[in-house]
């Protein structure tokens, strides 16, 4: 058990939503750290966070795939954009791990521009890019760059907020004021992805699959956000092979 993370997460949960501890909750199992027990609420999302590694629903979908396929990142060349904390903690000592973001931080060890990646062709075994492309004006260039730096046979993981009711991605018309784009797309997002998102990945050369899980796995590991809002594709991750 990771006591310092555990104490921090419990303190935060008790401060933000003390009422949750009056409610009985079933034991869940984390796909990343293996913790079994009560998960903690995050804002409107009941049982979203693992108290032992801070993982959230979407992180655990990724964790389920890695675990199910026996994928071990130690020693692997991995490019990870804006790393999620539980994964950064796991992989930070791997010398071939590039935790990239627009600036250095506690969970970023490199500055990487997804539209102009400073590594050679075929450098990485794996690439992880969750909830990045909706912030990137030249997203097609970003996808091309991800494809370029991946080794043949390598795997990249992508997810974005995705409107299942929309067949085609909405791009703001030229000249639309930034405030209007933000009102439509949400904070700091530059477009609304539709069901054609995987086609965009395929267009740069990837063969694309979706990580699937059973309803039982969804419950046991709490993989789907429960907040009564539109899920916006938060329940799926695309696995892309080069
Ligand atoms: Zn965990």
TrEMBL record:
Keywords: Methyltransferase, Transferase. It comes from the Bacteria. The keyword Nucleus does not apply. The keyword Thylakoid does not apply. One of its GO terms (molecular function) is methyltransferase activity. This is Class I SAM-dependent methyltransferase. It holds the Pfam family Methyltransf_11. Residues 110-158 form the Methyltransferase type domain. GO terms for biological process: methylation.
